[in-house]
Amino acid sequence: MFHLFLVALGGAIGAGLRHLANLAALRLVGPGFPWGTLAINVAGSLAMGLFIGWMTLRAQASNELRLFVATGVLGGFTTFSAFSLDFATLVERGAAMSAFGYAGASVVLSILALFAGLALMRFA
Q1: Which residue in 12, 35, 75, 85 has its CB near the most CB atoms, within 10 A?
Q2: Could you give the count of Cα atoms lying within 13 Å of 56 in the half-sphere of its Cβ?
Q3: Is residue 79 predicted with pLDDT exceeding 80?
Q4: Nearest to 14 by CA among 81, 108, 113
């Protein structure tokens, strides 16, 4: 139960940061293009790489810290960081074809699912 609390607390922090970053982007560049989401995805992926790299190469960090930061904060900030980590893990395991299949399927199927949800709600 403590692990769930760490993830939930981190997720709340990450979601709050995502909201603030989107508001800042809207004020800076306006609503014409999703610059905030793009910046969040890139920043979250960079942060995930830095954090996981630090954990594995330099730190004796606990599983609780990983759950709080990677799954909670960064997962709440952007799930794209988790997607990027999954892709990188597959590549580093020597499964590049699976990694690219995962990336392609994730993007295409997620977009199709979004359109399916919109269509279902429009015609329901």
Answers
A1: 75
A2: 8
A3: no
A4: 81
Digit-coded pLDDT (tens) for 34-70: 899 899 999 999 999 899 989 888 778 899 999 999 9
| 88 within 8 A of 28, measured Cβ to Cβ | no
What is the C-alpha to C-alpha distance for residues 67 and 49, in angstroms, rounded to an integer?
15
By the 10 Å C-beta count (0-12 exposed, 13-18 middle, 19+ buried), 53 is classed as exposed
Question: Shortest CA distance to 78 belongs to which of 35, 45, 55?
Answer: 45
Angle at 121 between CA 116 and CA 122, to 5 degrees: 95
83, 26 in Cβ contact below 8 A?
A: no
Report pLDDT digits (tens) over 94-118.
999 999 999 999 999 989 988 988 8
Which positions ≥6 away from 89 have C-beta within 8 Å?
none
10 Å Cβ neighbour count for 75? 21
